Amino acid sequence: MSTMVAALVFAAACGNNGGGNETGGASNAPTNAATNEASNAPTEEAAKLSGEIKVDGSSTVFPLTEAAAEEFNKLHPDVRVPVGVSGTGGGFKQFCAGEIAIADASRPIKEEEAAACKEAGIEYTELSVAFDGLSVVVSKENDFIDHLTVEELNKIFVTGSTVATWKDVRDSFPAEPIVMFSPGADSGTYDYFNEAILDKAGIRNDKAISFSEDDNALVQGVSGSKYGIGYFGFAYFEENQDKLKLVPIDGGTGPIAPSNETIKDGTYAPLSRPLYIYLNNKELERPEVKEFANFYIENIGSLAGEVGYVALPDEKYAEEAAKIQ
């Protein structure tokens, strides 16, 4: 797992290369919407933009893209940007079928997905847009958990687990049945948890666990069960912290809870992760798509904090902006 954390830190520092045609070189792309109001004002030509930009994919990335789409629409009211939430895997299926212009993803594209895109003639550009801390949560009514270790999380969720009660996890916990909630298999959050916590062994699938691609359904499930536990993006915890309790995770250096600071500096390990959008390069030839992509990268740093995520360093956004050109 330490290898995975190091890889994430390196990726954040150095950037990620997309699978399609990209141009290198740094740029000084602005990253703060408030300080760049003048640069975001539409030109006469840009103001006349119209059309539809279809986006789908990760429910974790959804709040970021929705925020960007809403702000973009204020400048370009004739451009529609519908944003779906079919999960990272579901988004890539549509993306590689040429059905959407942009895929939201809470993990990098898989080899088989990249192969499907290549077979369909879809070239793409990968852009990192923010950091997230995958958050483990229990109900506010839970009065016995103050932290969990990575090993205990593995014991609870791994396929083939015989753990049935909280006492099976830690002897000091009550002998009450565990009620588990997890994103579905099409979710990048599912994939990341499976890799970071379960060493790719897979998540159990029995009567003790419920799956949903809708993070709001997971919130409702956990908050409504005193002995429930689930996981999803940090933004969904922040939005619902009045009814959820955050569980600090001990990855080997003591219990650490996700926060803007621990997510950005990587100390919330191994559950800190970058988030992405994927652009269909052919779609970028449409002026409204390119304008939206530029707007997204120029402004998402300031929007990220508003919707519960952590912005990348300014120099990273400059690198990502250069890929769009």
TrEMBL record:
Q: Name one GO cellular component term.
A: plasma membrane
Q: What is its main location?
A: membrane
InterPro entries documented for this protein: PBP_domain, Phos-bd, Phosphate_ABC_transporter
GO terms for biological process, alphabetical: phosphate ion transport
The stretch of residues making up the signal peptide is none
Could you confirm whether the keyword Lipoprotein appears in this record? Answer: yes
Q: Name one GO molecular function term.
A: phosphate ion binding
Membrane topology is:
Lipid-anchor
The entry's keywords: Cell membrane, Lipoprotein, Membrane, Palmitate, Phosphate transport, Signal, Transport
Using the record's annotation, list all stretches that form the PBP domain.
43-297
- One short Pfam name that applies is PBP_like_2
* Chain positions covered by the region annotation Disordered: 22-41
Q: List the CDD domains hit by this protein, alphabetically.
A: PBP2_phosphate_like_2
Q: How does it assemble?
A: The complex is composed of two ATP-binding proteins (PstB), two transmembrane proteins (PstC and PstA) and a solute-binding protein (PstS).
What is the protein name for this chain? Phosphate-binding protein
**Organism name:** Paenibacillus arenilitoris
